[in-house]
Amino acid sequence: MKIENFDIRRAVDSDAAAVADVWLRSYTAALPSVRRAHTDDEVRYWLREIVVPNHETWVATVEGSVVAMMVLDDEDLDQLYIDTQWRGRGIGDRLVEVAKQSRPTGLTLWTFQVNAPACRFYERHGFVEAERTDGRRNEEREPDVRYVWSPGPEKSEL
Fold first, then answer.
1. pLDDT at residue 158, as a whole number
2. Which of 119, 126, 130, 138 has its CA 20 to 30 A from that of 150?
């Protein structure tokens, strides 16, 4: 069920606690079998002190409450988390549109191989699998997959 009444905007410092709440709830729900490399307090610190003030962080809000977050770091779509009750309502679709508009030359991202719903989501949005790893290079030590999105050729009008 899609919703129309949500806003997408750049995050501000005062959003950091809500961004962390969304990240923590979403990660826990989507990746119950994946070991978290950091405590809740460490995640909250990282989002409050490093990510929100220093990186291009976007939020989706419904009636003023943060329900999703996304971080763009150069060409990387680095974080995309949606609160569980708001999944499947078009918010993630709109955040990916924002990412593509912000990075029209292309995007890359990593997700865990075990996160099949995320893999399907990104593939539906034109991301193509470029690499799989055994997880030795990430903090969670979880096998992951890198996706790449490149804009297609312009369609000429007939």
1. 45
2. 138
At 38-77, the pLDDT tens digits run 999 999 999 999 999 999 999 999 999 999 999 999 999 9
Task: Please give the structure tokens belonging to residue 29.
Answer: 């729900």
Residue extents of the structural domains in the chain: 7-149
Judge contact between 67 and 19, C-beta under 8 A. no
Q: How many helices (H) and strands (E) does the chain have?
A: 5, 7
Overall CATH class of domain 7-149: alpha beta
The span from the CA of 132 to the CA of 120, in Å, is 15
Edge-to-edge, what's the strand order for the sheet holding 56-62?
A: 7-10, 56-62, 65-73, 76-82, 107-112, 144-149, 128-133
Q: Point out the residues of the chain with pLDDT beneath 50.
A: 155-158
Q: Read off the tokens for 49.
A: 């002190």
pLDDT of residue 3: 65
DSSP string, 15-84: GHHHHHHHHHHHHHHH-TTSPPSS-HHHHHHIIIIIIHHHSEEEEEEETTEEEEEEEEETTEEEEEEE-G
